Amino acid sequence: MRNAMMIGERVYLRPLEKTDAEVIARHAHEETETFFESGRIPLSPIAVEKWIEGLYKQQPSLHFQFAVCLLETDEMIGSVGLGGIDWINRTAETESYLDSAAHRGKGYGPEAKHLLLEYAFEHLHIEMLSSFVWEPNARSASAVLSQGYRPAGRIKSRMMQNGEFRDMLAFDISRDEWLEARARWQAARQTKK
């Protein structure tokens, strides 16, 4: 583990590093899911590296992005982040993406997202988080609901795919709702053991 900020049972979160750019670009090119994208564009490790550098320029930052790494191997399998941080009103938007399709459906994403929520609510003292899911991405919508988010609305005709506009679904979760969801999630994990 290097530079771990949040540690779970199988994954840990660390700040993105410039050396992660190659992995992120490679995973984007290997992506097999097409339902959540409006089109593919070439993604260069050089551009990703510049984006990572930009994350750390403004202080206090309005965006935190973490690498999701396996505890067992240190392999980076995705990222989670907080964007649009409003330090006055204590709000932010969450995002998550498991870059490696081979690691999806194994519970790594929910574990990483729970670590992100804990970081946001317990360390940054955020009061309300939102998450937006492109309507065709039913797996992500199901995931945010299982993490304790509640439906908060729909943004009509947000993105186009194959010549058709699709909606963006909005979800949110308050700190109090997260505390309740965390207790349920922890109880469910204990039952599985």
Strand content: 25-35%
Report the major sheet. 8 strands, mixed
Written as H for each helix and E for each strand, in order along the chain, the element string is EEHHEEEHEHEEH
Query: Oligomeric state of the chains?
Result: single chain
Number of helices: 5
The gist of it:
The protein has 193 residues and is an alpha+beta fold. It contains 5 helices and 8 strands.
Describe the structure.
Helix 1 (21-30) packs across helix 2. By secondary structure, the protein is α+β, with helices and mostly antiparallel strands. Strands 1-2-3-4-5-6-8-7 form an eight-stranded mixed β-sheet. It has helices at 21-30, 45-55, 108-123, 138-146, 175-192, and strands spanning 6-7, 11-15, 64-70, 76-86, 91-97, 128-134, 150-161, 164-174. A hairpin with a 5-residue loop joins strand 3 (64-70) and strand 4. The protein has five helices and eight strands. The longest helix is centred in the last third of the chain and has 18 residues, at 175-192. Helices cover 33% and strands 32% of the residues. The model has no long low-confidence stretch (mean pLDDT 87).
